Amino acid sequence: METIRRTRGLVTGAVLAVVGGLLLFASAVPRLPGNVMSLVETFLPWLGLAVPVGLIVAVVRRSAVAAVASLLVAAVWVGVFRAPLALSASASPETYDMTVVQHNVSDENTSPSRVGRILLTPDPDVIALQELTTSSLPAFRIVLGPTHPHHATVGTVGLWSKYPLTDVARVDIKPREVGDGWDRGLRAVVHGPHGEVATYVAHLPSVRVRPAEGYATGWRDESAGRLGRALAAERTPTVLVLGDLNGTADDRGLAPVMRQVRGSRGEFAFSWPAGVPLARIDHVLARGAEVTATWTLPDTGSDHLPVAARVRF
């Protein structure tokens, strides 16, 4: 029995060591079958749940190895996610120049007017929406138009702004295998008080877990590559990217985008799924500016929570 107890403690310690290694070096792990690392990176903060499990095993099995490993992983987790845990960062009245709201409104949402009113609560300068439909668009125009008279849509994505918009254009982020009529990328120049801001609104393809493929991200990754190339070619010094990217900032599939722009890492602001938010897949990203804070707004009836952010130029 003593040998079995020690063995189980050692196994628990080994598992925790793997968890700690993933927290520190997930991006260094090569691509694995089923794209499993992309899935791990999506839910990276939740690897911390291994700590209480390890401590329970340590107590039940009276394993010093499991206890020490659990405490080490806890320290690693706190180190990796120290920015979101720094309460002073969210409590300080940081200076900012623009408030932005990003939201996938859901093409099944039956209350677009209510959605619009919620999106206006932080007094945003710019609002980006995805999954617009021909039936919901008139309601959004009515609710958002009085405060955000400058408006542009391409396919199912749209942008509302307090400031004039020019150079509105479709951005081709469509995967090769997707049929015509799939328009989910928009670029417009916002002429605000701090100058021109090239603003991209994007909705990357969804990902699925399938028995035959594992974590199927092929279309999403291809679309991210196209968006990344568009951002690399952008010559306007200040850039905003607002969108449902169907992946977190840590997900290697979004690397082509994340090499071009950055978001705030100072808070978790999980946006999906709305009922029990587990990951932030809705983003406000910038280049030539800094996203100083990100937070979520109340549930709108979509499967995503709206994300609001403050931007400093």
List keywords for this structure.
10 helices; alpha+beta; five-stranded mixed β-sheet; 313 residues
Molecular shape: elongated
Number of helices: 10
Structural class: alpha+beta
Mean pLDDT: 93
**Roughly how much helix do the residues carry, as a percent range?**
25-40%
Based on DSSP secondary structure assignment, what is the total number of beta strands?
Answer: 13
Beta-strand portion reads 15-25%
Biggest sheet strand line-up: 3-4-2-1-13-12
Output the helix-strand order.
HHHHHHEHEHEEEEEEEHEHEEE
The major sheet is characterized as:
6 strands, mixed
| Uncertain segments | 87-91
Radius of gyration, in angstroms, nearest whole number:
21 Å
In brief, what are we looking at here?
The chain is α+β, with helices and mostly antiparallel strands and 313 residues long.
Written overview of the protein:
The protein is α+β, with helices and mostly antiparallel strands. Helix content is 34%, strand content 24%. It is built from 10 helices and 13 strands. The strands form 3 sheets. A 6-stranded mixed sheet has the order 3-4-2-1-13-12, with no helix packed on it. Strands 5-6-7-10-11 form a 5-stranded mixed sheet, with no helix packed on it. Strands 8-9 form a two-stranded antiparallel ribbon. The chain is elongated, with a radius of gyration of 21 Å.
Write the layout of secondary structure elements.
Blueprint: H1 2-25, H2 36-42, H3 50-61, H4 64-80, H5 82-85, H6 87-91, E1 98-104, H7 112-119, E2 126-130, H8 137-144, E3 150-154, E4 157-161, E5 165-170, E6 185-192, E7 195-203, E8 208-210, E9 214-216, H9 218-233, E10 239-244, H10 255-258, E11 282-287, E12 290-296, E13 307-312
Parallel strand pairs: 1-2, 7-10
Antiparallel strand pairs: 1-13, 2-4, 3-4, 5-6, 6-7, 8-9, 10-11, 12-13
